[in-house]
Structure formats: structure tokens, C-alpha cells
Write a structure and sequence with these properties.
two-stranded antiparallel ribbon; Tetracycline Repressor, domain 2; 19 helices; Arc Repressor Mutant, subunit A; 401 residues; 71% helix; mainly alpha
Length: 401
């Protein structure tokens, strides 16, 4: 019965022929893009879309069976256009075209970025488009990751971090490597790191609430977890919850702040063990610590990713708390001679780009290793060899232009 009904609906779906019909469909799609670029798929309703489009809800069903169909159409049309624009005889041209196209379509980039965490099919289609290009130029799995991660990161986060990118300079840095030279080999002992437990709060009850919220948000997601659920898991009355937090969003803010604090504490601990090595070796140690920290706190990683589509200010605070100290620490390393840049562009610009490279690697290693349990189709135990190769690319670049 249900299948027949669905089939009938599909056969009756209207293909607009008149100008006003085309305009109505375009209004629905434009409104959906605006909303999906600000909120996750689950947070946007059909009534919100039609209200923004100044159309009736009934008008929506003349063109789409459901919200899923509309969302897929938007994403797949974007991917088709992206693929058409990724043309060039060199990786440099490909990188520049990717940045140009992405910066010209910021809303669609946000639609993909805010929802790729939720939809495996979206992540896979995006990745497959980029892999086709990488295959053209003979990039390895790690070379593919090294080239595309910074490009994807800057189009998704440059506005959040409020930074400007010179596309040609940025692509050149990726292709040529971040350093003027790397004298040291990557020592295997950098992988001898176990994250340290970080105490949440002195107040035991507050700590209990935060810990249970971490588990529930990670397991069921922020939207599906209610204050009642958190209070029940914590063994307290709902009223007691509000003695500690104004609402659920403030609780999320506190959790993300703690995650950032715990992450920076563990990364700093790992980095400080290799003070005598060049700074990029220290960064690889920090990247390994990043993965190990979130492996121990897998729910926290899910919370950080989900928070990006819930509250922009939470995401901004989190990424700023990584980006700004990163800039300061690399500037200090440069001043002390422990970080040797290419020297092609101004010091501040190169430092900024190196930080973006490193942040992008953390972001996408987390996605591959923590969300899927593997890296580039290999078992997760291959993380160490993955980082060995990534270090080589950081030092010498792709050596392909």
C-alpha cells in the first residue's frame, strides 16, 4: 500500500513548463539552499522552506516528494558543476579552479560542509570526485589527502576564522611544501603517546552532568537528547540541572570548551617531548596526540562536529581556540630558528598558511580515522605509516606542478 502511494506521488510530481512554475521551483530551491547553509538537514523543515519562499506547503509537493529529494537534487547539481570546473593540465590549475569555484558558491559549500558529517553518501560522492582528479595526476592515497585537505578546509572555515586567502600563494605552498628543508627524519617514538585524563570540574555534580551529556550527545545527537534524559542519567531532578546550566545550548558550549581545553593540553604535552626536533616533527607528534585524544573521547569528537551546525558561535570559539595559539606558537618557533619557512611570501602569510595546513590535517584525519575507523581505505592501524608519508609531503611538497 505504502509503496503504491509513494509511486503514485512520484508519477504525479509536476515538471514546471510555464515561467511561473519554473520560478516557484527555483524559489523553493533557493530558500532550501539558504536554510541548509545555516542549519543541518534535520533542523530544516518543509514549512520553513516554503515560508521563506513565500509559497504554500502544497506548492512544495508539486515539485518534490519530500525534503530528502530536494536536498539530494541541490547537492548533486552542485557536485556536477564542481566536477565540470575541475579542469586543468596541472595540479596548480586544478587547485586554483577548486578555490575559485568554491569561493564563488559559498552557500553551497556550507550546505555540503554542514551536512557531510550526517550523510555518508554525501561524503563519498564528494571524495570520489576529488579522487578522480588525484588519479589523473598519479597521487598516492596520502598525496591525495595532503593536496585536498587544506583546500577543502579553507573554503569551509576561512569565513569562520575571518581570514583572507591568496589562492595562488596558498596552492603554491601546498605544492612546494611548508618548509625550506627538513633535516630530521620522523622518529618512531613520537607514536609512543597515551592521552592524559583531564578533570572536567571540581564540582562533582557538574562534572557528572557534563559527562552524561557527552555520552548522550555522542550516542543520540544533540537534537534528540533532552534535558530530561541528561538529568535522568545523572540521577538528578530536571530542576537541579537548571541550577548548573541555563539551558541545553549552554551545556553544549561548556562541553565544547572543555574539549578544546583537553585537546590543547594533550597536544601540548606531546609536542613538548620533542623540543629538540624541528617544528614540523613536533606537529606530527601533536597530530598523533589529536587522534589518540579523540579516540579515547570519541563522543566528544562527534559533539564538536555536530556543534558546527547548531551554533556558529560555539564552532567559532572552538576553532579560534586552536587557530590563534597555533599562530603564536609557530611564530615563536620561527623567531627561535626552529621553523624554517620557504621565504617566498611574507612571514605572517606563510605562517598563516602553515597553520591552516596543519589544522586541515587534524580535521580530516579525524573524519577518516574517528568517524569511519579507517584512513583512505586502509585499516586504522596504518595511521603511523600514514603520518610518516604526510610528514614527507609537508617537507618537500608534491613535487608536481
Amino acid at each position: 500500500m505504502e509503496k503504491g502511494t509513494s509511486s503514485n506521488k512520484k508519477s504525479q510530481k509536476r515538471v514546471p513548463q510555464r515561467v511561473d512554475g519554473v520560478e516557484s521551483k527555483n524559489k523553493i530551491k533557493a530558500s532550501a539552499i539558504e536554510l541548509f547553509s545555516k542549519y543541518s538537514f534535520s533542523e530544516v523543515s518543509i514549512s520553513q522552506i516554503t515560508k521563506l519562499a513565500n509559497l504554500s506547503t502544497g506548492a512544495f509537493y508539486q515539485y518534490y516528494i519530500n525534503k530528502d529529494e530536494l536536498f539530494r537534487e541541490i547537492v548533486e547539481e552542485f557536485f556536477q558543476e564542481l566536477e565540470k570546473n575541475l579542469k586543468g593540465n596541472t595540479l596548480k590549475n586544478i587547485g586554483l579552479e577548486f578555490l575559485r569555484f568554491s569561493f564563488e558558491n559559498p552557500q553551497l559549500i556550507k550546505v555540503v560542509h554542514l551536512n557531510e558529517y550526517s550523510f555518508e553518501w554525501l561524503r563519498n560522492e564528494y571524495e570520489n570526485i576529488l579522487k578522480k582528479v588525484s588519479k589523473q595526476f598519479g597521487l598516492t592515497h596520502v598525496g591525495h589527502f595532503y593536496f585536498w585537505s587544506p583546500l577543502r578546509f579553507v573554503v569551509a572555515f576561512s569565513d569562520l576564522l575571518e581570514i583572507e586567502i591568496n589562492s595562488e600563494h596558498f596552492v603554491n605552498l601546498i605544492l612546494n611544501g611548508a618548509l625550506s628543508h627538513c633535516e630530521d627524519e620522523l622518529p618512531e617514538k613520537i607514536f609512543d603517546f597515551t592521552p592524559l585524563k583531564h578533570v572536567l570540574e571540581d564540582d562533582e555534580k557538574r562534572e557528572q552532568i557534563l559527562a552524561n551529556a557527552e555520552s548522550l550527545f555522542g550516542l543520540y545527537g544533540y537534537e534528540k537528547t533532552q534535558v530530561y534524559d541528561i538529568a535522568k542519567a545523572s540521577g538528578i531532578a530536571v530542576g537541579t540541572f537548571y541550577l548548573y546550566f541555563k539551558n541545553k545550548i549552554q551545556l553544549l558550549q561548556e562541553l565544547v570548551k572543555w574539549i578544546s581545553k583537553g585537546l590543547r593540553y594533550n597536544v601540548k604535552t606531546a609536542v613538548e617531548k620533542f623540543q629538540s626536533c624541528n617544528r614540523i616533527i613536533q606537529e606530527i607528534a601533536g597530530l598523533y596526540a589529536f587522534v589518540q585524544f579523540f579516540k579515547m573521547h570519541s563522543n566528544m569528537y562527534k559533539i564538536v562536529r555536530e556543534s558546527q551546525s547548531i551554533d556558529r558561535s560555539i564552532a567559532k570559539d572552538y576553532y579560534d581556540s586552536i587557530y590563534k595559539p597555533y599562530i603564536r606558537s609557530l611564530k615563536k618557533a620561527y623567531d627561535e630558528g626552529r621553523l624554517k619557512l620557504k621565504g617566498i611570501y611574507k612571514v605572517e602569510e606563510e605562517l598563516n598558511y602553515v597553520v591552516l595546513l596543519l589544522m586541515s590535517f587534524g580535521h580530516y584525519v579525524g573524519e577518516k580515522y574517528l568517524l569511519t575507523g579507517q584512513i583512505n581505505g586502509e585499516k586504522c592501524e596504518q595511521l603511523q605509516s600514514f603520518l610518516f608519508e604526510l610528514y614527507e609531503y609537508l617537507c618537500r611538497g608534491l613535487e608536481v606542478v
